[in-house]
């Protein structure tokens, strides 16, 4: 089953992002992947289409609310959500009462009139390495959930489908309505508990529920470039519904382990490289690992300071749903020598004496203490 990534993930925003934050994210992403800025790049063109489609959904309050409620299923089947939700209105579209019922129906005991009660959604968690997030990976997850009972084939009756009748109280609707003043309130049918069916002879294995608890293995394809904390939805992989009703969904929370060498920031990778004082002063060449398993050589010029960054284009992290990659940044940290022997101390003392007579060797040091001197002289005057 193909996995679908959240529209929020495409725009690189959280589900709680404001409309203004979503608009800013869209402008940033659209500019980055616009075909005019990426001529001949099919991956960027596809990403540009995804960004526009995601923004088209999330910029509209109604569409966004439906997406938050139903996920991608809200727009399957010609743009209609579950139960035929039509955002366009007009002739043949959903009226105000229908919209209210579709958006909040479950709070009152179900979805649209006559729709079967679905099974519960299931939450799962998977932890992957940074390398697996870079390449993408397929994971088999053990999930404890409710599945259709094999003994009664999910009907809940020992006699199978022949032992199931339409509920006489709700006539199969699964809910009943009662007038309260000017309002009509819906609630789950107390006879069939929302199933719309009654069972004559309950199955001994599932006690008439039509489902039993069982551990099963679910395979999920985690795409390359996924971020820590992303939630993947697998439609229909949740708990089986009671008495043969549709299953719920499976939501998989993805956590990415911290890495001992790399730090990730979106599509970019950072690698902190400690250098000895002499290496930074004289210049050197270092070999660093790349997240894809290769190696890269970086020339460090003489006089490099702590905090200097060296950029390796295209050596960074995978971009979600794209063949592109970000950049890698080698961050230099100059290490002060420790535990000196006698000869090393003598050499450093000699070096410090020479350096003190050459103001050009440490311009920041010299400039700072010159400003300190002026500061105190100004106070004295």
From TrEMBL:
Q: Name one Pfam family in it.
A: DnaJ
Name the UniProt record assigns to this protein: Chaperone protein DnaJ
InterPro entries noted in UniProt: DnaJ, DnaJ_C, DnaJ_domain, DnaJ_domain_CS, HSP40/DnaJ_pept-bd, HSP_DnaJ_Cys-rich_dom, HSP_DnaJ_Cys-rich_dom_sf, J_dom_sf
Describe the task this protein carries out.
Participates actively in the response to hyperosmotic and heat shock by preventing the aggregation of stress-denatured proteins and by disaggregating proteins, also in an autonomous, DnaK-independent fashion. Unfolded proteins bind initially to DnaJ; upon interaction with the DnaJ-bound protein, DnaK hydrolyzes its bound ATP, resulting in the formation of a stable complex. GrpE releases ADP from DnaK; ATP binding to DnaK triggers the release of the substrate protein, thus completing the reaction cycle.
Where are this protein's CXXCXGXG motif repeats?
149-156, 167-174, 189-196, 203-210
Give the cofactor binding note. Binds 2 Zn(2+) ions per monomer.
Domain comment as written in the entry: The J domain is necessary and sufficient to stimulate DnaK ATPase activity. Zinc center 1 plays an important role in the autonomous, DnaK-independent chaperone activity of DnaJ. Zinc center 2 is essential for interaction with DnaK and for DnaJ activity.
Q: Which residues bind Zn(2+) 2?
A: 167, 170, 189, 192
Gene3D superfamilies for this protein: DnaJ domain, Heat shock protein DnaJ, cysteine-rich domain, Urease metallochaperone UreE, N-terminal domain
Cofactor(s) listed in the protein's UniProt record: Zn(2+)
| Organism in which the protein naturally occurs | Acetobacter thailandicus
CR-type domain location: 136-215
Keywords noted in UniProt: Chaperone, Cytoplasm, DNA replication, Metal-binding, Oxidoreductase, Repeat, Stress response, Zinc, Zinc-finger
Oligomeric state and interaction partners are given as:
Homodimer.
**What NCBIfam families does this protein's entry cite?**
DnaJ_bact, PRK10767.1
Residues in CR-type zinc fingers run 136-215
Binding residue positions for Zn(2+) 1:
149, 152, 203, 206
Q: Which HAMAP family match?
A: DnaJ
Q: Which residue stretches, if any, does this entry annotate as coiled coil?
A: none
Similarity-based family: Belongs to the DnaJ family.
Q: Name one GO molecular function term.
A: oxidoreductase activity
Primary gene name: dnaJ
- Enumerate the spans annotated as J domain: 6-71
Subcellular location(s) of the protein: Cytoplasm
Q: Does the keyword tRNA processing apply?
A: no
């Amino acid at each position: 089953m193909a996995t679908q990534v959240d529209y929020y993930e495409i725009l690189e925003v959280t589900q709680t992002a404001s409309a203004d934050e979503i608009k800013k994210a869209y402008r940033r992403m659209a500019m980055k992947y616009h075909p005019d800025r990426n001529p001949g790049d099919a991956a960027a063109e596809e990403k540009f289409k995804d960004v526009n489609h995601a923004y088209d959904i999330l910029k509209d309050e109604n569409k966004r609310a439906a997406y938050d409620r139903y996920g991608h299923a809200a727009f399957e089947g010609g743009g209609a959500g579950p139960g035929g939700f039509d955002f366009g209105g007009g002739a043949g579209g959903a009226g105000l009462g229908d919209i209210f019922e579709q958006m909040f129906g479950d709070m009152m005991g179900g979805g649209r009139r006559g729709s079967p009660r679905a099974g519960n959604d299931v939450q799962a968690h998977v932890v992957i390495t940074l390398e697996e997030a870079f390449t993408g990976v397929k994971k088999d997850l053990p999930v404890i959930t409710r599945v259709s009972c094999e003994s009664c084939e999910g009907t809940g009756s020992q006699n199978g489908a022949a032992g199931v009748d339409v509920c006489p109280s709700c006539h199969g609707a699964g809910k009943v309505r009662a007038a309260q003043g000017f309002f009509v309130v819906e609630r789950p049918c107390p006879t069939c508990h929302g199933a719309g069916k009654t069972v004559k002879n309950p199955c001994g294995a599932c006690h008439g529920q039509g489902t039993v608890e069982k551990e099963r293995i679910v395979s999920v394809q985690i795409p390359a470039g996924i971020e820590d904390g992303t939630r993947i939805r697998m439609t229909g992989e949740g708990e089986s519904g009671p008495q043969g009703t549709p299953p719920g969904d499976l939501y998989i929370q993805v956590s990415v382990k911290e890495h001992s060498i790399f730090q990730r920031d979106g599509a970019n990778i950072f690698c902190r490289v400690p250098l000895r004082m002499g290496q930074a002063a004289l210049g050197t060449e270092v070999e660093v690992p790349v997240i894809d398993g290769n190696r890269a050589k970086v020339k460090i010029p003489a006089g490099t300071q702590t905090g200097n960054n060296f950029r390796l284009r295209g050596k960074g992290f995978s971009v979600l749903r794209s063949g592109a990659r970000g950049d890698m940044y080698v961050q230099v940290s100059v290490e002060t020598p420790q535990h000196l022997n006698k000869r090393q101390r003598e050499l450093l003392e000699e070096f410090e004496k020479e350096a003190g007579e050459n103001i050009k060797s440490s311009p920041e040091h010299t400039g700072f203490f010159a400003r300190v001197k002026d500061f105190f002289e100004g106070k004295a005057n």
